[in-house]
Every structure is written in C-alpha cells, then in structure tokens.
Amino acid sequence: MKRILVFMVILMLSLSVFANGVQEDTAEAYPSRTVRVIIPWSVGGMTDVLTRPIASNLEKQFGVPFVVENKPGGGGVVGSLEIEKSTNDGYVIGTTSMSTVSAKYVSPVYPDIHNVDLISQVITIPATVTVNADSPFMTLQDLIDYAKANPGKLKNSNSGTGASAHIYASYFEAMAGIKVNHIPYPGYAEAVTALLGGHVDMTNIPLPDLSAYVDSGKLRLLAIASAERHPAYPDVPTLKELGIDVVMGNYSGFVAPKGTDPEKIKIIDDAIGKAMQDPTLRKFLIDAGYQPLYLDHTQFANVITDAENQLEYLVNELGVEFVDD
Amino acid sequence: MELFSMNLYLSGLSHFANPFMFLSSFLGVLIGIIFGALPGLTATMTIAVFIPFTFGMSPYISFAFLLGLYSGAVYGGSISAILINIPGTPSAIATSLDGYPMSKAGRAGEAIGISTISSTIGGFLSVFVLMFAAPAIASVALKFSAEEYVGITLIGLSVIAIISPGSTIKGLIAGVIGLIIGIVGLDPITGFPRFIFGHAELLEGIDSIPVMIGMYGLSEMLVQISSAEYKVTVEQKLTKIVPPWKDIKRIFGTVIRSSFIGVLIGALPAAGGSIASLVAYGQEKRLGKNRDLLGTGIIEGIAAPEAANNASTGGALIPMLTLGIPGDAMTAVLMGGLIIQGLRPGPLLFQQQMPFVSSIFISLLLSVVFMCILGLLGARLYAKLISFPKKFLIPAILVFGLVGSYAISNSLFDIWVLIVSGIIGFVFRKIGLPIAPIILGMILGPLFESNFRRALMLSEGNWATFVQRPISLAFIIIVILVLAGPTLLKSFKKTFIHSKGV
C-alpha cells in the first residue's frame, strides 16, 4: 500500500505541473513569467523533437521558463484547438504543421490556421523521391522512363491512403505524368521499412524519416521536393531543377492564440530567428534530419497560403480524400 | 557486419562507475513495475509520461532509467493478471489464463515467483541475442513483408482455438466478436470509414485498452457484486516465492523456447509483446509436456508468456538500434528520447556511438537484475494485496483504469467504451464466453486484414504470393498443423491401425 501511496503523491505533484496559475499581467518587459508551449503531438514525435531545443534556447534568451506541454490526440486536432482557445496574453504559444491546414478535409471537428496568429516557421520538411540502394534507377529520369513504359507497375509505399506521403505521391504522380501503384502502410516507419526490405520500389516520404538510411548507404535519394537543395545533401537535385515544378512537404512553425499583441509576437519571432542562427541548435536539427528554414510571420503566411492552395488543388482536381497521419 | 571485439562491448562500462546509473535503473524498474501492474497504465504510456524528466540527464543515465521502466512495466503487467485476473498490459493477457487459477488456489506467491524467474531468463536471453546477433536478426526482420505478417497474425489467431477452455465453439464466437470490433474505424487500406455511425471518435477504431479494462476489470467487479454469497478470500501460501530447483528445471525448456519466440517476434516492427506472449502460449499448448493441463493453473502457463514478453523487450530494441525502426509502440517513444539526446538511432549508431550502445546493453542487463530482485522481494507484498478486501481493491483499480483509458487519447469516449465493454463482458461471463479471444481478435484482426490486403496489392492480386514466399509458406504450414494436426493425426492412426489389422 505504501507504494501506491507514494505513487499517488507523485501523481498529484506531477498533476500540479498542468495547473494553470492565474497571475496578474503586469506591464513590465515581456515575457516576465512562464510561457507555455503547446505541442499538439506526442512526446518524442517529429514536432516534439525539434520544438524542445528551440524552447530551451528561448529560455536562455529570456530568462523565463518555456514549458513544453504535449497535447496529442486526433492527429493534432485536440492540441491545435486548445491553442486556439487559450488566452491571448502572450504566455501561451503553440506549434503548427501542415496537418492543421489539412484537418478540415479529415475531421468533423477541426482547428483553423486562420484562428491563430502566426509567429514564425522554423523547419521545412521536404518530400523526396527515394529508392533502395540496390534499385536499378540511378536518376529520376530512369525512374520516370520506367514508369512511363510500365504504368502502374512501380510500387510506392506511403503512410496510409489520404495521409501525407500519399498526398505527396499523388501530387508527384500528377505533375510527372506517371502512374504508380500506391501501397498504404500505417505510418512513415513501416513505409520506409518496406523500402529498406525491397518490398516496394520507391517512396515520396520526407527527408527526416529517411536521412539515416541515405547516410548509411541503404537508400538512394533521386530528388528532393524543396525550393532549394538541402545543405547536408548538396548533390541531390531538386524536382524543380529536373523540370518538374513541385515543391511539397511539411513545415513546422510557431503560432499564438488569435489577438495576441503584435508587439509580443514580434518579440518571440525575433527571438526564434536568433535561436535559429545558433550553430549548436542548427547542428542538432540538421543531424536529426531536419532542414532549418527560418521564416518570419509574413513569409510564413505565404507558405501556409501555398499549402492551402496545393491541398485545394489535390481535393478539387485530383479528387484525393485525406485522412490523418 | 563484422563481429565487434569484447572491448567494444565493455566500452560503456566505465559509465557504470557512476552510482546514479544504478539508482536510475533501480528507480526505473520500480516505477515501471508499479505502472505496469496498474491496469490502464500501459508500458507505452509510462515511458511517455516519464521521458520528459530525462531530457536534462546525460543519455547514459536517462537510458538506464528508461530501459528500467521498459522492462519493469512489461513485467509488472503480469502481477495484476495473476492476482486479480485483470492484465496490467495487453502482453499479460495470456499470463492471466493460468496465473489467476493459481492465485485462486492460494498459490499467488508461487505464480509471481515463476513469472519473475521466467521474465528474468527471457530478459537475459534477449539482451545476449541483442548484443551478438542484432544485425543478423535485423536483416531477417527486413525480409518480412506483408505476406509474412499475414502468417504471423494467423498463428496468433489460431491460438484462439487453443486458449478456449471447455468449448472451442464459444472461443471462436468470442474471437469473431473481437474481429468484428476490430473492423470499426477507417479502412486501413482505402481510408473509408466503417461502422462509425456518425461518431467521429470511432474513426480511429476502438482502442483495445479500454475494452480490455472493461471486459476484465469492470465485469469482474460486476460479477463480485452480483454473486450473492460473500466471497472469502483465499488464504495465500507464501512459502514458495523463490521457485525450487525442480520447478525451474520443469519450466526450463518452455522458457528457452518462449524466449526465442519473444526475441524474434519482438524484433518484427509492428508485432510486439502481446503477440509474442500469445504465440508462446500457443506453442506451449502444442509442444509442452503438460499441455492438457494448460489453463487450469500450471506454472508452464505463466512461464511461456512471461518469458516471451520480456524477451520481446530486447527483441524490439534490435530494429531500433540497428535500423532506426521501432519494434513496437514503446520503442517508438524510446526512439524519440534518443533523438532528443542528439543520438540518431539507426545503422550509424553502432559505428559511431559504440560506448553508448554498450551502455544500453549493460543497462538492460542491470534492469533485468533489478526486476528479478524487486519481483522476488515484492512477491509477498503483492500476494498479500489480494487479501485486501476486494470491495476496496477493485474500485481503486477501476479508477486507475478509467483514468488510464481517458489518458490514451484524452477522450471521454474511451470511458464509455470501457463501461459498455464492462457490461458486455459481464453478460459474456454469465453465459460462459471467454474474454481473451475477444481482445485477441481486436488486436490481431486489423493487423491481419491490412497486411492481407497489402500483400495482394503488392502482388497485383496474385494469391499465389502467400505460398511462393518461403517464410510465408512455412507459417501457413504451421497454422495448418496447429489447427488440423490433432485431427490428421487421429485419422492417420486410424488408417494405419486399420491397414495393419487387415
């Protein structure tokens, strides 16, 4: 019983972490007390891994705690809605990704990116065209030539019908003028495993989930779907260079509840910009497979508009139906 | 990959001069056992809750703690399965089949002792396999495509026919009910919503954890309430905690077989402890010396699943460390912890971070040792817990179960799932339908369906793919032998004797 008691005490103490102290907002320098950072995805997930070091860098800059809270559920819907509903006094910020934009095609209850104020983008997560190292396709042209000669024969692993990697694959398919055989897997890890095991021919899964295998020589990047080449893979061409006008992928950025004081947003935005210049942080992010790309709140707005347009095109022109990732 | 010299394996040993390594491993195992034993708090959730605390620590200390949690939680699930017939984690479902009957006979202490020893041996074996054969096993696991997963899940499903004491028909009915529940939600291949009746909560399917807690936990409570006579708690004999040598000798073969099953299934991405323990229990029913008594409360029935689920911990680390692919939900969370520490799991880890990899091996061994000590020392205490009046014990556990179900996806809907399954489970118990096949069907059904359809997509509709691939063919032969074996044997004997007679 003692053990259960000790457990209860620990549980209660840890619950107090989530308690939301009501404090008077003084007019002194912002931020003067704890800032909550809400991540709508789980601990150890993609967004979590990149947000924590940025949050601790902000802590160092401001000298106040930036407490990261994970609110997973419903593919990010639960946490994103919580960010929307939080008080806009500048002491709550959150993270966003493309799933906040695509949620409306997926879930009956969904957050809206226009219900929050953008702070900055920190990461771009480009989709890729990747094959196994043993694959006969040495260049993108090889792959496209084969696909044109054998429509529907190339097996492309994705993260579920209507999920992000399927969206990338459908968009790539449409823009390259080919037909592939879409094989849905439950998530990125399983889809990459299938490519590693040689059970499929290619995938469009984004770089962070593949980079370890590219580095160890098990997978080969044929192209990357970002606007510019990746700093860690300067030899890999972009799809754009190869004549296929496709820039697609995910991004990660910070947002604040609607109506947060623009001055405060500017302060956080600038601090994030400074953090993204930090060489240790940059190295951490690049080593973890991310492509750091800081954009301030106005440039970030363009990225989001592009994402919205791309999704509209997919839904209306290609008839893709989305699901959660 | 070439073999590493022993020096490399010991290169992490210097970090263990720091007493904090032992402390954090010990604490990890202790917390893991407690969380694992509480129904609703799964091993995955335990690791997810505690991982943020480790971000400030060095990777060595943090992984000593996390691996302790991992082993402890997987082992802890057996305690509540044995004592109150409510598996603490899905991987302990098979343990309750023989564990609870033993505890009802006043042998709870002995049962926990057997579970501890089997888990320990399973854990040790898996660490050694992880250390010396990880790259080889990882490359075998990569050969597994959808067809092979179909085979593995079929073997798991065939266990349903085996674990239904009394009536196979009732077991099959329960299994089909589980399969039907598993159909609810988005179609795994096309993404079409099935049987959601306009409820968005059902899109992601019905989670097996609240169903498990409801069907085992709540229904147990309802059975207690409804039974008129006051149940006298069975007096527990607490003399035989550390199993005598003859018991260990008796289960040794079972433990070794089950451990290897555990390591191999654990190493398969997407499979894991729950399937491993079921397959191990199934093979015990086929190959074990006392197979006919299985389900009545014999030590082999605890040894097989417990050795397997703890062996699957080391197994699940194989694809994580060598390929950077999580072997199960728990290692997926652990992987996030590695990345946060600036270490990239995957093929380069062995080459670049050997001291750290070596410290993972040593930490895992250490956590198995602590698990053994805490299990044997605590067995008396745990066994006494059942003497605690059930009118307090069961509601308290139910509260934890409710909280845990809510925490899985922060959804009240799961609480309703728990309550409804509790009532259905109560009715099933009254009419004698077994519970385990329902949970089994729920877990394995979706895995079977999605891989079956994926296999046909990969082969462009060619059904022969299941027999053209050697590993897949072997699995199908095993399934046929498991299901038709006894009948075939009988008819073979008949014809043989008959022809001899003529």
Q: What is this structure, in a nutshell?
A:
The complex is a heterodimer of chains A (325) and B (502). Chain A is built from eleven helices and eleven strands.
Tell me what the structure shows.
The complex is a heterodimer of chains A (325) and B (502). Chain A is an alpha/beta fold. Chain A has two domains: 34-125 and 250-317, Bordetella uptake gene, domain 1 (D-Maltodextrin-Binding Protein, domain 2), CATH 3.40.190; 128-247, D-Maltodextrin-Binding Protein, domain 2 (3-Layer(aba) Sandwich). Chain A is 40% helix and 19% strand. Chain A has eleven helices and eleven strands. Chain A has helices spanning 2-15, 46-62, 77-85, 98-106, 140-149, 164-176, 188-196, 211-215, 262-275, 279-287, 297-318, and strands spanning 35-39, 66-70, 92-97, 116-126, 128-132, 155-158, 181-184, 202-203, 219-224, 249-257, 291-296. A six-stranded mixed sheet of chain A has the order 2-1-3-10-4-11. In chain A, strand 1 (35-39), helix 2 and strand 2 form a beta-alpha-beta unit. In chain A, helix 2 (46-62) packs across helix 9. The longest helix of chain A is centred in the last third of the chain and has 22 residues, at 297-318. Mean pLDDT of chain A is 86; it is low at 16-26. With 502 residues, chain B is mainly α. Chain B has one domain (6-501). Chain B contains 20 helices and two strands. Chain B has helices spanning 6-9, 19-37, 43-50, 59-84, 93-104, 108-143, 146-162, 168-183, 208-226, 245-267, 273-287, 299-323, 329-340, 349-352, 354-387, 390-409, 412-430, 436-458, 465-468, 470-501; strands at residues 185-186, 193-194. In chain B, strands 1-2 form a two-stranded antiparallel sheet. In chain B, helix 2 packs parallel to helix 4 and helix 8 (168-183) packs across helix 18 (436-458). The termini of chain B are far apart. The relative contact order of chain B is 0.18. At the A-B interface, helix 1, helix 2, strand 7, helix 7 and helix 8 of A face helix 13 and helix 18 of B.
